[in-house]
Amino acid sequence: QMGWVHLGACLLLISPVLSLFEDQVGKFDWRQRFVGCPSQVSLDKSRGGRIDNILLASKEQAVAAISLNNGDIAWRRLQESNVTDDISFAATEQLMVTVSDSGRSVRAWEKRKGGLRWSVWLSDTPSTSVSVGATGDLAAVVSGNTIYGIEGSDITTYSWKGVITKSDWSRVSTMASSATGSGSSLLRSELVLVTGINLQKVTLTPIDASGLSSEGSVSISATWFHSERCVISRETLWCLSSTGSLTALPLSTSAKSTTFTAKSGILRPLSISNTVAVVGESETNVYRLTGTEIKKVLSLPFSVDSIEGVAVDGENEKGVIVVAHSIYNLAVYDLEKATQLAKATLHSSPARVPISTLLISSPSSSSPSEFQIVAISSDCRIESLVLDVKQTGEPFIEWTREEALARVSKAEMLDLPLSELQASIESEFEGGDLGIVGAFIRRVTTQAHQVKRWAIQTSHQLMSLSSSLSFGRSGNLAEILGRIRNQDGIRASRSEPFERDFFNTRKLVLLTTLEGVIYGLDNADGRMVWRLNVDEGSTHFSPLKSQLGEETVPVYIQRTAVHPGLNPIATAVYKDKKSLEAVLVSFDPMTGKVMSTRRTPPVKRVDVLPKEIADHLHPLVIVLKSGKVVFEPELPANMKAMPPLHVMDIDPETGALEGMELSIVNGVGSLSKRWTGDLSFEKDEKAIIVQGKPATQRVHSRGRVLLDRNVHYKYINPNLVAIASLDEVRQTLSIHLIDSVSGQIVHTGRVTKVTGPVHLVHCEHWVTYSYWSEKNRRTELGILELYEGDELPESNVFDSFVPTLHQPTAIVASYIFSQGIEAMGVSETEQGATTRSLVMALPFGGLFEVTRRFVDATRPVEFTQEMREEGMVPYMPEIPIATEDMVNYNQSVFNIKTIKAFPSGLESTSLMLAYGLDMFYTRLTPSGTFDILKDDYDTGLITLVLVALFVGSYVCKRIVKRNSIKAAWA
Amino acid sequence: MRLLLVAVFLWATVSADGLYSVEGTVVYPRGDSSLPANTRILLNYGKYVGFPREDGTFSVNGVAPGSYIVQVENVDYVFEPVRVDITASGKMRTRKIITMQPGAVHQLPYPLKLQARESTKYFRKREEWRVTDVLFSPMVLMIALPLGIMLILPKLTANDPELQKEMENMQLPKMDMPDMSDMMANFFGPKTTGTKKITGGKTGNAGQKKKN
């Protein structure tokens, strides 16, 4: 037992390098939280008519409230993320009742704070059709062919359930209390079950706390009813036949259906009672049921993308309709007079995609001409605007949220363009020969430029400093000093031009999303620099499918920003939903401006050619499904022969491998088969992860020095690909390491009695993988390291065709990890000299950083004094998880899918981005910031001491002089 | 009435065909009432999710028989995870998690009672510069203490001639303390040519020889 304590103490000495100080909060990191793309939204009108929140359920299984004032998340609750069905909800005065998990789980949330009031499990059998209605303390849920009633405030189970037999369509509808008019038998109930049989009849059954009241139910023969062409808009059921006859049935037992000959189109419910919109292909009409008559109250000569209405002052007749049409035009109409109140074009909005959902609130009494409108575009952008009908011009945009960022597919961090200063130095060396005089003049002018630039920058800094100081006059000296110190952080960088900083830590984060939007973010503070919807004007975007079946929108950097005078180029690839062609969109990653769009036949694989053609441009290699190889842009015919490229293909079902060689002759590429292999998967085995190594990765030291001063040389094969395959039935995880060029299987390892989730990191000469051990019922972490032997390999460059001196040997160790893992990533530095560290996203929201020294296959089990002197870490079965090691401290992030790190200009610093539903960015310093001053380095104190010493010595000198004169006289 | 509507009343807490609920209470530190709204109960790291009500009680529903790690997700407090085993017949067994010995059974009561262990610490304390740190460091003490004795002792003895005599007789090894002002003058001032007294000089320390 004592031994463990001792070892624990030993580990404690090493670990503090990774943890964080409180004053570093927010200095290098930022977090962004998202709710996901909304699937259902409604305005929360609870508090005395003043709208406060937008309630929403999202495709990412989040239930949330967004503050209407500033767009911040008021609260957010994440339900089971392994479910794919949409959540549906209904709101009451106090509660938001959600149905999730395929209509099986009902939960009621307090609308204001998001606390759970009650949760009820309905049934074990999932169903696809779900409808929910709620009022007061009563909620009714239709799930499949069963209706459940839930009544009360502190409950754990439903009050009653009923079977709905023989119906094609069933919905629960909430009646607004004002609509339950006198004389109606529905008076005592505010919930109605509406069921219908196609072309036969519609049945209305009131719902109350004790169940369905069968006496109150009425059946109406309805030959006009069809489940696919009917909607409930507030208290009325509307059906539109394919021929254009519109039928309305008020949801009260005494009511009769009314039919009207209208234009065909799609029915859209509105939030105004007795009103519905029919959106046709070239026109839009709004109909209203008054008594037993349907009237056309508004007719627009164009089709709309979305339409919504609101009653003003609680009166239906005074309703206002807002429409979005022609992609980004908004218009507001008065229903009473059928006139246009206002129209606006969202010029400032970057989204050139249709608005899919609109919400509008009735104006407050203080400003009766102002309408607050929430527009949700089809690329998941939520925008809140205020439209004043008395004023013309642009509506005022209050806030926007980019929810597409909750579905990021790929991330890259790009170097910013060189600053003017750096560029001038570069160009000084790039220019031709000018002779002595010319060179001298150039030298002087560049330096004059540098001085000028420095002067401008310093004056800017001083200005911002003085303004920030004058802001907080009350602060004491320490506060002011702190403010001065913070000046050289992120804060000042905002006003500076968007260019590279001294240590190249400021980068552009390029993100592609599965919604078709590409973002450029500033990594200093996470603000959006630009956004680009590749799908503008059409709706044909769909992500590519990777070989393992995952959706992906890859992006390739064809030219970086380091070449002054040449625009950087990045290209994203997606699939056209209609034609199945691949679309390549090239854009400037610094500005987000599209440069060109090209189409190719369906692609199998795209990559960047590791060779520049003219103007430092890397062409794209595109392997088409047909097996043809094309280049983008085309290669010059006179291009020098280059060594062939190798492509490996895997069938994730069978494990069949195929190695192909891509040879380029005279600018024409051709693919030829080089080798075939087979991992011979079992029947239920499937490849789940295929991971190569980044081409730019560097390994600083080739060997590991052993205790006896011998060197163990690492097997560093840049062509090595790690394949993880999982057999869910036999519970076996296999790790295969394959040389993708020669087809040699370097290593195969098997772990039995394990299941997913499996995560894998492949880096340098090692592979780390995590899995769930079914035998021990805990997460375990495996590490596999490859070594070539004790002799120095002859060549410095690895060649897959030259056999290594010895067959590489694998050293394997495994560790207990007492938490689940959602995603795993590894730090990446410029030279690879810094000890790497692994970052894992834990299910409770932490991002845990652990140094590779802990996750090491060579940690000795028997620990000697010598090893301690060498600073080795003894083997301990468990990787300690301390909350101090969370790089995101209390900034929890959830449902993280990927963690990716990028090198910065500082060897010690790696820039890490974790994304999924939330996003977190920080700097990792796995070995501490050994190459720059610590950020708590007290410049102020040192300056103070130096000045004091200087002054002191001068004073001393004077005193001594006087004394010596005195002494001489004495 | 062709459409048949049947209302069935149900009072059972456990669903019938093989899915069960895990129930329990989250016990928060006293006085922190805002917590339930940002707490979740995770079974096997999010396979099933439950939410505590205002009073801390929770039930995770629709759980298939098996063995689960029950964990409380809260940003401010650390909770000890527990393991819950559900048999096919719906029997519950709760035990402590000992990662090193997954087989060990250390039974806990059911329904679960999950207590906050401590508030979560995310930060290390930054080392602050304090005057006391410097004063009490061994190096400073080693220098300051003898210095103090050297300075204070003569002062103490100055009033007592007898003691002074005694001290002189003690024949302490006399140190050649350089004259501070002299040193300073040599460092910063012009070459001093004035008369200088050489203090001590009995041991003939080389560093003390000054050009006169």
UniProtKB/TrEMBL annotation, chain A:
<dbReference type="InterPro" id="IPR011047">
    <property type="entry name" value="Quinoprotein_ADH-like_sf"/>
</dbReference>
<dbReference type="Pfam" id="PF25293">
    <property type="entry name" value="Beta-prop_EMC1_N"/>
</dbReference>
<keyword id="KW-1133">Transmembrane helix</keyword>
<keyword id="KW-0256">Endoplasmic reticulum</keyword>
<feature type="transmembrane region" description="Helical">
    <location>
        <begin position="939"/>
        <end position="956"/>
    </location>
</feature>
<dbReference type="Pfam" id="PF07774">
    <property type="entry name" value="EMC1_C"/>
</dbReference>
<dbReference type="InterPro" id="IPR011678">
    <property type="entry name" value="EMC1_C"/>
</dbReference>
<dbReference type="InterPro" id="IPR058545">
    <property type="entry name" value="Beta-prop_EMC1_1st"/>
</dbReference>
<feature type="signal peptide">
    <location>
        <begin position="1"/>
        <end position="19"/>
    </location>
</feature>
<comment type="subunit">
    <text>Component of the ER membrane protein complex (EMC).</text>
</comment>
<keyword id="KW-0325">Glycoprotein</keyword>
<dbReference type="InterPro" id="IPR015943">
    <property type="entry name" value="WD40/YVTN_repeat-like_dom_sf"/>
</dbReference>
<feature type="domain" description="EMC1 first beta-propeller">
    <location>
        <begin position="20"/>
        <end position="403"/>
    </location>
</feature>
<dbReference type="InterPro" id="IPR026895">
    <property type="entry name" value="EMC1"/>
</dbReference>
<dbReference type="GO" id="GO:0072546">
    <property type="term" value="C:EMC complex"/>
</dbReference>
<keyword id="KW-0732">Signal</keyword>
<protein>
    <recommendedName>
        <fullName>ER membrane protein complex subunit 1</fullName>
    </recommendedName>
</protein>
<keyword id="KW-0812">Transmembrane</keyword>
<feature type="domain" description="ER membrane protein complex subunit 1 C-terminal">
    <location>
        <begin position="763"/>
        <end position="969"/>
    </location>
</feature>
<comment type="similarity">
    <text>Belongs to the EMC1 family.</text>
</comment>
<keyword id="KW-0472">Membrane</keyword>
UniProtKB/TrEMBL annotation, chain B:
<feature type="region of interest" description="Disordered">
    <location>
        <begin position="191"/>
        <end position="212"/>
    </location>
</feature>
<dbReference type="GO" id="GO:0072546">
    <property type="term" value="C:EMC complex"/>
</dbReference>
<dbReference type="InterPro" id="IPR013784">
    <property type="entry name" value="Carb-bd-like_fold"/>
</dbReference>
<keyword id="KW-1133">Transmembrane helix</keyword>
<keyword id="KW-0812">Transmembrane</keyword>
<feature type="transmembrane region" description="Helical">
    <location>
        <begin position="134"/>
        <end position="153"/>
    </location>
</feature>
<dbReference type="InterPro" id="IPR019008">
    <property type="entry name" value="Beta_sandwich_EMC7"/>
</dbReference>
<dbReference type="GO" id="GO:0030246">
    <property type="term" value="F:carbohydrate binding"/>
</dbReference>
<feature type="domain" description="ER membrane protein complex subunit 7 beta-sandwich">
    <location>
        <begin position="33"/>
        <end position="142"/>
    </location>
</feature>
<comment type="similarity">
    <text>Belongs to the EMC7 family.</text>
</comment>
<dbReference type="Pfam" id="PF09430">
    <property type="entry name" value="EMC7_beta-sandw"/>
</dbReference>
<feature type="signal peptide">
    <location>
        <begin position="1"/>
        <end position="16"/>
    </location>
</feature>
<keyword id="KW-0472">Membrane</keyword>
<feature type="compositionally biased region" description="Low complexity">
    <location>
        <begin position="191"/>
        <end position="200"/>
    </location>
</feature>
<protein>
    <recommendedName>
        <fullName>ER membrane protein complex subunit 7 beta-sandwich domain-containing protein</fullName>
    </recommendedName>
</protein>
<keyword id="KW-0732">Signal</keyword>
<dbReference type="InterPro" id="IPR039163">
    <property type="entry name" value="EMC7"/>
</dbReference>
